Amino acid sequence: MDGRSPVMSAAFAPLSDSGRADMVVRRVAEAVTIGLMAEGEQLPSESDLACQLGVANGTVREALAILREQGLVETRRGRNGGSFIRNPEEGLTRIHQARLRELGISELRDLGDEQFAVSGTAARFAAERAPSDLAKSLDRLITVLRKAESPAERRKADARFHIEVAVATQSVRLTRLEVRLQAELGPLLWLPGGDGPDASAFADQHHEILVAIMAGDAAEARRLAEEHTIAGARHLVRTHLRLTDA
């Protein structure tokens, strides 16, 4: 994966802990969840992935075995073989519904607070540092969110918008934090079955953030991003209460 985009570089940055197989599993699952890797896309070879993540080949091999058991990866043999992404949305939906039901209000508040801090700061720095061509890529993602027909498509467009804003800050740490938050909160926010937010309203909020960023108005960009994360956090709490009541 030479010449990787900043988003993919952040998603597959070297692991900072012991390099356990479950952390490799989490990185791959995050990349699939937020749409950085699509159905049928081939993962790097075991040795390349181990090098990118800074772990042993055996750790990657163990992680791939776990991913196959979970149905997120399939391995093919032969000349064109390798490990390929699968994305069983139905199975993931059951997992995410159960997780949202089990989370307490205080845990949801803590996650919301973290996203409030990260996304607000990212929008502020993006307004100060964003390249001139940022508007084109973000506007495309806003259009994708408006036209998306499935929760998975909305989740991925929403996540990519926030991640691209973080990339525009030119801060690797902020980008990694945003990737992790989108992978953790996005599936809970955009649940199927009518439990997702109003995509049109979210797209309007994205547009307002984009306008502030491109105008170089750091304070306004931060304020709008913070209001946007508050709206998402409130929606999560409402959905959580509805699931627990049910």
Summary, kept brief:
The protein has 246 residues and is mainly alpha-helical. The chain has eleven helices and two strands; from the N terminus they run ααααββααααααα.
Strand order of the largest sheet: 1-2
Helical content (DSSP H or I, runs of 4+) = over 70%
Output the structural class: mainly alpha
Q: Detail the poorly predicted runs.
A: none
| Assembly context of the chains | single chain
Strand content: under 5%
Major sheet, described briefly? 2 strands, antiparallel
CATH architecture of the largest domain: Up-down Bundle
Q: How many structural domains does the protein architecture include?
A: 2
H/E element sequence: HHHHEEHHHHHHH
Give a count of the beta strands, DSSP E runs of length 2 or more.
2
Question: If you consult CATH, what is the topology of the largest domain?
Answer: Four Helix Bundle (Hemerythrin (Met), subunit A)
SS element count, helices? 11
Radius of gyration: 18 Å
Name of the top-level CATH class of the largest domain: Mainly Alpha
Overall, the morphology is: globular
Q: CATH H-level name of the largest domain... which superfamily?
A: GntR ligand-binding domain-like
Mean pLDDT: 87
Cα-to-Cα separation, first versus last residue: 45 Å
